[in-house]
């Protein structure tokens, strides 16, 4: 039942106030960490006594941080490509296929979303340890792919579900082959869903820390893992700068998703 704000009267301001408090509760930690990354104190003091870009300069001149940033980006890009490709194939099978156990298969594909990440991380660690994939880029990609693939399947399946299949039938009547129909009709029609799936897959890999800790090695660490390990040793403002960079890229990606949804609805 939808609420009628015109009839709520004074209660409307109570609800608005609660909404503002919730937003502040969610955003204030992010604002604090961003402010600390520009503080000129070597300690994490809020509010900062002064402002500087020294910590960002130190971040981008330290090879350890640069390598971790490059590793995160490399793994996230590879996971994105694989997640969208496999998610598209799986979504086509789940939305168009008619076979026994389709619902069970769909539920199984979404299982990583409901499992505790630490349980999944321990299971993958034990499995990859036998295969010799721990501490390798392949291990990172496969591990992140497990948790990113459900997001692609959900997003692409929703796009395929709202797609008018009669367009494909019309293209086939005009003489197009099944492959041409998929490449020239289906994929362009669901391009927004594919792009949204790519963004979600990238963010899942980019921000993942629990599974990455199990996959990491002394010579191969992603940015979230390096932030975590550095945080356990020293509270340097460089951590705040790296965290702000991590949050900034995540926010930009989420804004892109919002713009995509807005463009799709208009």
Question: What do you see in this structure?
Answer:
The model has no long low-confidence stretch (mean pLDDT 84). The radius of gyration is 23 Å and the shape is globular. It has one domain: MetI-like fold, CATH 1.10.3720.10. The chain is built from 14 helices and no strands. It has helices at residues 5-8, 11-37, 54-61, 63-96, 102-109, 111-114, 117-131, 137-161, 166-173, 178-189, 191-207, 210-215, 223-233, 237-265. By secondary structure, the protein is an all-alpha fold. Helices cover 78% and strands 0% of the residues.
Concise synopsis of the structure shown:
The protein is mostly helical and 266 residues long. It is 78% helix and 0% strand.
Compute the number of strand runs: 0
Low-confidence stretches: none
Distance between the termini: 26 Å
Shape call: globular
The CATH topology: MetI-like fold
Put simply, the count of helices is 14
Decide which structural class fits the backbone.
Answer: mainly alpha
The CATH H-level homologous superfamily: MetI-like
DSSP strand (E) fraction? Answer: under 5%
Q: State the CATH architecture.
A: Orthogonal Bundle
Report mean pLDDT, rounded to a whole number: 84
Could you name the CATH class? Answer: Mainly Alpha
Order of helices and strands: HHHHHHHHHHHHHH
Helix content bin: over 70%
Largest sheet: none
* Overall number of domains: 1
Radius of gyration in whole Å, from Cα?
A: 23 Å
């Amino acid at each position: 039942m939808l609420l009628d704000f015109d009839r709520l009267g004074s209660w409307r301001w109570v609800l608005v106030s609660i909404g503002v408090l919730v937003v502040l509760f969610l955003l204030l930690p992010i604002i604090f960490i961003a402010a600390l990354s520009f503080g000129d104190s070597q300690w994490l003091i809020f509010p900062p006594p002064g402002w500087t870009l020294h910590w960002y300069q130190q971040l981008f001149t330290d090879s350890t941080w640069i390598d971790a940033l490059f590793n995160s980006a490399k793994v996230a890009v590879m996971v994105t490509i694989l997640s969208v490709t496999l998610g598209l194939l799986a979504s086509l099978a789940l939305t168009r296929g008619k076979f026994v156990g389709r619902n069970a298969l769909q539920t199984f594909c979404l299982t990583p979303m409901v499992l505790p990440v630490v349980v999944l991380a321990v299971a993958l660690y034990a499995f990859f340890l036998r295969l010799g994939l721990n501490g390798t880029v392949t291990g990172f990609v496969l591990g992140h792919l497990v948790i990113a693939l459900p997001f692609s399947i959900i997003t692409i399946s929703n796009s395929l579900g709202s797609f008018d299949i009669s367009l494909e039938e019309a293209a086939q009547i005009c003489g197009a082959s099944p492959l041409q129909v998929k490449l020239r009709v289906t994929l362009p029609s669901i391009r927004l869903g594919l792009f949204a799936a790519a963004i979600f897959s990238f963010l899942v890999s980019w921000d993942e820390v629990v599974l990455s800790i199990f996959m990491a090695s002394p010579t191969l660490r992603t940015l979230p893992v390096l932030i975590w390990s550095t945080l356990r040793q020293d509270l340097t403002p460089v951590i705040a700068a790296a965290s702000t960079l991590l949050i900034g890229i995540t926010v930009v990606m989420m804004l892109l998703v919002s713009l995509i949804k807005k463009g799709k609805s208009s």
